[in-house]
């Protein structure tokens, strides 16, 4: 694994949902995100100052599938999975550890949209 920066890093993610209020309640409760609904049909996600990427919630009105695919770095993958379950989500793949100590898991929000959780190996 190289330490060089990826030339085209992930810089945005999007969550498509027919129920944006439920999505905001879920992600706000689990990760502490805040939201800006000033744009009709789209909610900007505020991840806080210095966040390396941004994102939004597209209001699908049920016209297309609920989906989202992104990976979220967390300090404790198992604790984050507990929060996911506590707030109506589900575990898709439980915590796993790579040979170098990176931990990861996959979960789904209440709509069934799958996302990843990961934590780098200890320094």
Shape: globular
Overall tally of domains: 1
Q: Tell me about the largest β-sheet.
A: 4 strands, mixed
Any low-confidence stretches, pLDDT <50, length ≥5?
none
Beta strand count: 8
- CATH fold group: 2,3-Dihydroxybiphenyl 1,2-Dioxygenase, domain 1
- N-to-C SSE string, H for helix and E for strand: EHEEEEHEEE
Q: Could you describe the 3D structure shown?
A:
This protein has helices at residues 20-31, 77-86, and strands spanning 12-17, 34-39, 42-46, 54-59, 71-73, 90-97, 103-108, 114-119. Helix content is 18%, strand content 37%. The radius of gyration is 15 Å and the shape is globular. It has one domain: 2,3-Dihydroxybiphenyl 1,2-Dioxygenase, domain 1. A four-stranded mixed β-sheet has the order 1-4-3-2, with helices on one face. Strands 5-8-7-6 form a four-stranded mixed β-sheet, covered by helices on one side. With 123 residues, it is α/β, with parallel strands linked by helices. The protein contains two helices and eight strands, in the order βαββββαβββ. The model has no long low-confidence stretch (mean pLDDT 89).
